[in-house]
Amino acid sequence: MKIAVTSRGKDLQAQVDPRFGRAAYILVVDTETLAVDVLDNSENVNAFKGAGIQAASLISDKGAEALLTGHCGPNAFKTLEAAGVKVVNDVQGTIEGAVTNFKNGRYSYAENADVDGHW
Amino acid sequence: MLISVASGKGGTGKTTVATNLAYSLGSRAVILDCDVEEPNAHLFLHPDMDTTEQVWAQVPEVNQDACTLCRKCVDICRFRALVVAGKSLLVFPELCHSCGGCFEVCPENALNEGRRELGQIETGHSHGLECVTGCLRVGEAMSPPLIRKVRAHVRPDKINIIDAPPGTSCPVIAAMKGTDFVLMVTEPTPFGLHDLILAVEAVKVLGLPHGLVINRSDMGDEKVRDYAQKENIPILMEIPYDRAIAESYSKGKLIAEMWPEWTDIFQELFQKIQSCLA
Predict the structure, then answer these.
(1) Residue among A54, A75, A82 minimizing CB distance to B86
(2) Domain of B245: which CATH number?
(3) ipTM confidence
(4) CB contact set of B102 (below 8 Å; sequence gap of 6+)
(5) What is the extent of the structural domain holding B249?
(6) Is there a single domain that holds both residue B22 and residue B83?
(7) pLDDT tens, residue by residue, B78-116
């Protein structure tokens, strides 16, 4: 399956970006092959409003079924929920480590947004 | 006639000038409180309010059965209020600016007219003076649409006085645009001057006749007067820095009510505005 991970860099050794909507990059990773699709999120980084909503729509369009990130606000969560994308919060470390933890079932999915809007 | 009372800096005395001017003109005037984020003219005029109207912004609502996810509405919305998530179109009404573009481009008629509350408008009267107050809903971020609705209460046969919000951003422009005269209130301090210059630049862009009231005029320095002279902005009135005036303000009393000679001074201010426009 494909999962999206918010990232400070463009490869699997980069650190997870704790922000979702305004993350520097979002990597869509195939959990079987570890093939990476790098999404440049710079347009959303500088968005006045609605960054999380746009990022959520973007990863859904790319076929991600789950999102690994630091925190997720209410509008982003609502969009992800509608798109059927599961959310894991409080993810830290490298992208590769996060993907491995995910495959090993170490994470549980969030049931709600964990921060307010404009976090 | 339509006079807006504005300032760059907050707390310079816009409401003091607007309410006293309106009170002094009495039944010839209407006061419209367009500082909708924190309206306060009523604290000094104590009007009896007799009507309240809710004001709404038009926002889209999605008929998911009719929507084909063509994204034409998503593409036209520069405020990103619409988004496709999986197999559904979502609306975030708080981001919508009510431009109506999405309704225009939808080929399936899949958007229905919904609404978001902007706030309310109260109308009433005080000593024969008509009072209109806009009050933005707590949590609402957009005040210009409500300000325009307050301005819809302008009476062409009267002297309409708009108490504008402070600053130089969209709400102020919404309150000043198209008025016959902008009465700018400032204080003779570095902050007052700095923000006055910004406000004057905005007024010039709008091409509106304007004049100055200097409040707390015997404090600070001469730089506001020097600036007014250099820019050819008439100083129409000065209000001294006076403890008695501050005390009456703190009790919600008008200067013109406490000291009737000020009624004449504010009526003169109106005559000076008329002369500026002649």
Answers:
(1) A82
(2) 3.40.50.300
(3) 0.83
(4) B60, B73, B76, B77, B82, B111
(5) 2-55+118-277
(6) no
(7) 898 999 998 899 999 999 999 999 999 999 999 999 999
